[in-house]
Each structure stands twice: as C-alpha cells, then as structure tokens.
Amino acid sequence: MNQPPAGYAPAPVTARMENHGSHMLKVAMQTGNDLFARAGSMVAYEGFIQYEPNPAAVRQIARDWITGEGAPLMRCSGDGLLYLADYGADVVVINLAGDAISVNATNLLAFDAHLTWGVERVKGLAKFAGQGLWNTTISGQGWVALTSRGEPIVVDCGDGEDETHVDPDALVAWSPNLKVRGKRSFKAQSLIGRGSGEAFQLAFSGRGIVVVQPSEDSTDRLRFRG
C-alpha cells in the first residue's frame, strides 16, 4: 500500500502547533526552539528529534510542587515534525500573545520551552478548604497545547457580578487573573444512600475565560492535600 487512506494524510504545516484531527497535536520543530511535552505523549515524528526526560529545568520547579501532582515532562529538541497525543483525548491549541493561562497538570500536553512557567497555589482557596489547590501557570508569547476529555466549552466570565461555577473534576484551564473561591452546596435528600449531601464547586469571577471539559474525570486531578 503506497498511498495513505483518504483523509488521513498529513496536511501542510501552517503553524508551530496545530491539530491533526481532534485528538492529535502536530508540532513543527526547529533547532533552538525546544518544547516541553508530557512524558510518553510522542506517537510519531519525522526528522531528527531528541528527547530528554525530567530535564534540570523541570526538576528545579518540581521542588516547589509539594503536593506531588506535577505532570512528568520531557524536553524535545531538533528539526522535524512531532506528533503528540494523550490516550485519545481532544487537543486544544492556544497561542499566547503576552498573556497567561492556568492549567491543571493532568490537562497539560505541551508548551514552548521559552515560555515562563511555574507551579502556584491558587489564591482564595486555602482558607476555605484548609489546604489548597495547585496549578501550572504559563505566560509569555508562544504556544501551549491542552487536552480535554471530550470537546470542551470556553466560558467567558465577562466582568459583571455574576460568578461562573465549575465542577473541579471538569475544570481544564482558566485565566489566572480571575478570582477563585470555593463553594459548597447541601442537599438533604442526598443523605439517603451513599451520597454525602455535600457538593463542592469552584466559583470564578472577573474578566477572563474558563475551559471546561464534558467529563468529570476525578482520577488524580484537582486533589486537595495538606
């Protein structure tokens, strides 16, 4: 078979990062423009690309990630085309233009190595939860790729007084300038059976966006720890 199946051949490169279908990321690699990617996410590549797992830059930042929720990363360098995926999850490509985004570690697929990034505790939750929520904040001018369990929605919080409430297990990313607080709701009927009667949400307010996936994936995601 010398010809690829119709509709599945690689398309011409038009950007540093772009979707190849909805479940795969294509990265145009160039020497001197390295990439941080989730370890094990490489599914194919063309050209000459090298991989360094757990590079020194990641180890330095990981010292501050006391909750142990950091995503294992590898540094990718070289020339060619790199294809990344994460168990068939949808891929969302974002081009930062001097702004920033906060991302859950489990939803972080790849980002340009020259971007500024770090692990931070989300303000406004420690007093409420007694513990805290950790996230990865990425800023600068460059490309970021996220994953979502299903096609996500992007909610514009606007700048009014109304809050946007999100299930923590469905949260993918958000604008770091948004105010975040925890909220609990109680339903007496939930006490019957296994339910605890208590549900926890995150409330966002201010000017910015929130990315929400159509899946309450609670496997080692927004875990509250001391």
From TrEMBL:
InterPro entries: AIM24, AIM24_sf, Trp_RNA-bd_attenuator-like_dom. SUPFAM superfamilies: TRAP-like. It comes from Streptomyces thermogriseus. PANTHER family: ALTERED INHERITANCE OF MITOCHONDRIA PROTEIN 24, MITOCHONDRIAL. It comes from the Bacteria. This is AIM24 family protein. It holds the Pfam family AIM24.
